[in-house]
Structures are given as structure tokens and as C-alpha cells.
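Protein-export membrane protein SecG
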Amino acid sequence: MENVVLIIHLILALGLIAVVLMQRSEGGGLGVGGGGGAVSGRSAATALGKMTWILAIGFIATSITLTIIAAEKSAGSSVIDRLSATPPALNEQGAPALPEGNGLLPPTSDSSAPLVPAAD
């Protein structure tokens, strides 16, 4: 079910992008300009404008549906529930114990070899 809604959501998103890019630019920023007469501030609704509204409503509906599905899937569990029940081991000072020092260093071929070559 979730995959079907997700595919529909992606198709709606691509369709919404395509329809918005096909619309005629009216000039002016943020819808300031545009035709529609000297008195009325609205232009006649076009087919692309109606299609934009339909796709936008579908996009919002699938977004809400995906949110509800995700919330239902994670309702019974939390990050704390997934953690192990045993706490990490503590050292004498009460801090978490560190791993062995040898495990932190890369392996060497000879541990007795000097780190700096001897000067001749």
C-alpha cells in the first residue's frame, strides 16, 4: 500500500512540476503583474491553472497519507526500545570501559622496530 501511494505521489510531483513550467509567465515578481482587466485583479482560469490545482490537491493528499502510514508503522516502537537492555561495562572510576589499546592501532609487522629510522 505504501509503495503504491509513494509512486502516485512521485507521479503527481513530476506532473505538478511540468504543469507549472508550461504556464505562461506574467512578468513581475510574486504575481504583481498580469492581465485580467483594469478593474479586476484576477485573470480568467485556464486549463493549466485548473490542472495545477488538481495536481496540488492530490500531492497534498498523498503527502498526508504517507505521513499517516509512516506514523502507524512506527507507533509501537521507539529508538529507546531498540537499544539493548544491558548497559555498557563501567571501569573503576564509573566511566564506560574503553577497548584494548592494541585494537585501536593499526597492525605492525614488528613491534620492536623503531618508529624513527636511525640517523647515519
